[in-house]
Amino acid sequence: MASCGGNDPEAEKPELTPIQKAALVFEKTATDAELEKGRQVWLGTCKACHSTGLAGAPFIGDKQLWAPRIAKGMDTLFSHALNGFESDVGNTMPARGGNLELKDEQVISAVKYMVSVSK
């Protein structure tokens, strides 16, 4: 039965925040086994900053924020994630996302996952 008054339920939905929009992107399941491993690392470690913008972390899924980082190349992204990085504008990436128990392969998989949903 059609609703009365011409109310469009879609029009009543509030605008999504950037974090909510990113959540729709990063919660999807990766299809590649390595990306799924990276997604699991992201959920356990990286999500704390890359879904909130803490310390200037780029939101996962935000193509505009990630583009200049991706342009530097994967080796640079891997190095920053593994060893830490502080930009000249105060953005801070702690080594291994602050989880020093992560192995190199886990960090690299997480970076690949974040890049895959942020291109």
CATH-wise, what's the superfamily? Cytochrome c-like domain
**Protein structure class:** mainly alpha
**Average pLDDT for all residues:** 83
The DSSP helix count reads 5
How does CATH name the architecture? Orthogonal Bundle
Shape: globular
Radius of gyration: 17 Å
CATH class label = Mainly Alpha
User: Largest beta sheet, briefly?
Assistant: 2 strands, antiparallel
Sequence stretches where pLDDT stays below 50 over 5 or more residues: 1-6
The percentage helix is 40-55%
* Total count of strands: 2
Summarize the structure.
This protein has 119 residues and is mainly alpha-helical. Helices cover 50% and strands 3% of the residues.
What are the main properties of this structure?
5 helices; disordered N terminus; mainly alpha; Cytochrome Bc1 Complex, Chain D, domain 2
Write the layout of secondary structure elements.
Blueprint: H1 18-26, H2 33-50, H3 63-71, H4 74-83, E1 85-86, E2 92-93, H5 104-116
Antiparallel strand pairs: 1-2
